Amino acid sequence: MNKLRLRKEVERDEGVRNKVYLDSVRVMTVGWGHALVYKAISETTEEELQEIGFFDEPWPHNVLEAFFENDLTVHIDQAKQVCQNKGVDFDTFSDARQ
């Protein structure tokens, strides 16, 4: 698997942001689409977080990198498990299919 190419594809599709933002379903997200929590926040909570500047503070690049690497590892492992459950060897797929 070409992780550098995959990373560029994710960055193209997701974008990368060094500040926390709300995604399309109001989940707090940072970096390459890394969800900080898996629950949407209310408008009241959003306003409270804005008041204390939570969305204004940039996150260190090394932290965003660590999130991305961890997320990538988790999702690759999940894809391999799905393939294994179906009796298919993930590693035999081309990079495009992986």
Question: Could you describe the 3D structure shown?
Answer:
- This protein is of the alpha+beta class and 98 residues long.
- It is built from 3 helices and 3 strands; from the N terminus they run H-E-E-E-H-H.
- The chain has a 3-stranded antiparallel beta sheet.
- Strand 2 and strand 3 form a beta hairpin.
Gist?
The chain is α+β, with helices and mostly antiparallel strands. The protein has helices spanning 3-14, 43-51, 61-85; strands at residues 17-22, 28-31, 34-35.
Global outline? elongated
Structural class: alpha+beta
Order of helices and strands: HEEEHH
Q: How far apart are the first and last residues' alpha carbons, in Å?
A: 7 Å
- Please bin the fraction of helical residues: 40-55%
Number of helices: 3
How many beta strands in the DSSP annotation? 3
Low-confidence stretches are none
Largest sheet: 3 strands, antiparallel
What is the overall pLDDT average?
92
Strand content: 5-15%
Strand order of the largest sheet: 1-2-3
Q: What Rg is obtained from the alpha carbons, in whole angstroms?
A: 16 Å
Strand-helix topology:
Blueprint: H1 3-14, E1 17-22, E2 28-31, E3 34-35, H2 43-51, H3 61-85
Antiparallel strand pairs: 1-2, 2-3
Name some characteristics of this structure.
single chain, 98 residues, alpha+beta, three-stranded antiparallel sheet, 3 strands, 12% strand
